[in-house]
Write a structure and sequence with these properties.
By secondary structure, this protein is mainly α. The protein contains 6 helices and 2 strands.
């Protein structure tokens, strides 16, 4: 993974670099959780920073929130798991 991180933004801490790579290239860096070739970045453009494109900026403060599809209040962790299982046709991480 160290060699991979050298290709990411060198101004970021290593864990943030790893997260960005997983976010931007999910099937490549988290293949056991994706069932198709979609990455988080396919819905959340520009690594989740583009406005009007499902931005992730300041998202944590909105949770927990009522989810109409689920019919109950969910956590941000639940929502991310839903992305893996529904949008990416994969499976949820055991760690969340």
């Amino acid at each position: 993974m160290a060699a991979i991180l050298k290709r990411a933004d060198s101004n970021m801490p290593a864990l943030a670099q790893q997260g960005k790579l997983i976010f931007d290239q999910t099937p490549k860096y988290a293949p056991k959780y994706t069932g198709n070739q979609l990455s988080c970045n396919d819905c959340h453009l520009q690594s989740g920073t583009a406005s009007l494109a499902a931005p992730m900026v300041d998202l944590a403060g909105l949770f927990p929130m009522f989810n109409k599809r689920a019919g109950h209040v969910i956590s941000l962790q639940n929502r991310i798991q839903e992305c893996f299982t529904r949008s990416e046709a994969g499976r949820a991480s055991a760690r969340g």
